[in-house]
Amino acid sequence: MGAAASTVYYNIRLRHPTLSMPIIDYDLALLFQPMLMLGISIGVAFNVLFADWMVTILLLIIFLVTSTKAFFRGVAAWKKETLFKKEAARILAQTVNEEAEGYIPLSSGPTNSRREQVSIFENICWSELGLLLLVWGTFLALQITKNYTSNCSISYWVLNSLQIPVAVAVTMHEAVNLYKGEKKIQSKGDEGTNWRAFQLILYCLIGILAGIVGGLLGLGGGFILGPLFLELGVPPQVSSATATFIMTFSASMSVIEYYLLKRFPVPYALYFSVVAIISALIGQKAVGKLIKILGRASLIIFILAFTIFVSAVSLGGTGIFNMIGKMERHEYMGFENLCKQH
Fold first, then answer.
1. How far apart are CA 221 and CA 331, in angstroms?
2. 190/186 Cα distance (integer angstroms)
3. Which candidate, 233, 272, 261, places its Cα nearest to that of 336?
4. H and E: helices and strands count for the chain
């Protein structure tokens, strides 16, 4: 949560690399965030229910598949950038030759009126952000209220169920506007229009799945949304910024839910939050400079793939080590009771 929050603080002032819009795609966030939040609540419940070895195996499978797909996506993006660089060099050489011969062609086509810098208040889509905060605040209120009820009581399940209409209503509002063409995913340019109903339903289901996995593994869902946005054709910078923005909402909700379940060691978490905040800010600046120097946004994809792979090895290895220890001690390794009092 600390890393996501500090990254959003850095990104919220930045603009899209080629279009006149923020680097965070607020409409894309609004399409996925409510369902992601709903999935987080389900995932946290599964975390209580599932045995450690089940979580470990699921983590390994998801991380290895996601990192592999992200890596090959990065390779494809690197090849496209190489072709673009060669074409740009050819056009530059041709222009230099024409100027040397005394012929300077008139520019044609629309000029790029994108502003490099705007104020932070201009760079935020306030109506979309308001809806995102409304979903987050509603879920927070329901979780806190649920903490004062008995596990698996009627009021407990009623409060849990109230999350569904909130998430569905906000997501449907955004999906219908996208379907009718009244809104578009601006970060995709002209491709951000003409959404089909099947696509929108599929993405909503993926949002719930990402939330379930994020809540189950305590990840916030960003590791799944980042590669998914790349598959949708969103530029790497925008994909990373938007996924992290959404993850701030879901990760903070995971923190609150685990704290209410008394599964949250505060001093331990605060220490790593500080480390993550500092590391995220350094990483943002370092990667930003590398992209400017090398002209390759695909670096973001490779870093994402590498991070997911390292997480799979380290977390998976730790989980397997703990699982072997429990087997040697003959400890219970089955499903837990969701309705026990915490």
1. 31
2. 8
3. 261
4. 11, 0
